[in-house]
Amino acid sequence: MRRTLAYLLRIGGSIAIVAALVAQIQRTIQNESAGKGEVGFVVQNFFSFFTVEANVLAALALFVGIFTLSSRKSDSQGWTIFRAGATTYMATTGVVYNLLLRGIELPQGATVGWSNEILHVIGPVIMVLDWLIAPGRRPLNAKALWAIVAFPILWAGYTLVRGALVLDPRTGDPWFPYPFLNPHTSVNGYFSVAFYIVLIGVLIGVVGAGVLRLSRGRRRA
């Protein structure tokens, strides 16, 4: 029964997430083509959102997971850590979006409503359920948390460096994926940005620790 549910989650989840990503980037490209025409720039921006990157990792984890289920063997430790990371990022995305960003029009063009819900709500729920239900995961110790938090740290560094060096050709202003990461519009500049980065880092660490704890929980054969 668990294996069947895992198949359904992984097949349906991977299709839904890919469809949502494609729909949103198509809308973004269409809007930009009808406006300033900086399609290359907005495509780079699209894949600079943590939400998008988390969903790409989640879709990959779910799709590959379809085939790992059929082997009926335990996942490798490396693959389990990858799944744990993708689950952590998606769960964090769901929490941050619903606490800080719901109702804010994000700067990737007009948002596709159903796509937005899949990327920020349904996708995270699917990943958490998959982590809880799907057989095959290996128990992970606390050291795996370093691997999980490495990607968000690199993403934050990339975001700040790119925002400082790359100007939006449409406006001439620095571009940041989320309002709370923009030091030019935040109340206290980089201090506010640093606060949010630390806050999100702590949240990712806490969620990641919870995901790792669940990996060591009692599992049925």
List keywords for this structure.
221 residues; mainly alpha; globular
Query: Which residues sit in consecutive blocks of at least 5 with pLDDT less than 50?
Result: none
- The helix content, as a percent range, equals over 70%
The quaternary structure here is single chain
SSE ordering: HHHHHHH
Given helix and strand content, the structural type is mainly alpha
Number of helices: 7
Q: Whole-number radius of gyration?
A: 18 Å
Tell me the overall shape.
globular
Main sheet makeup: none
User: What is the β-strand count?
Assistant: 0
N-to-C CA distance = 12 Å
Short summary of the structure?
The chain contains seven helices and no strands. With 221 residues, it is mostly helical.
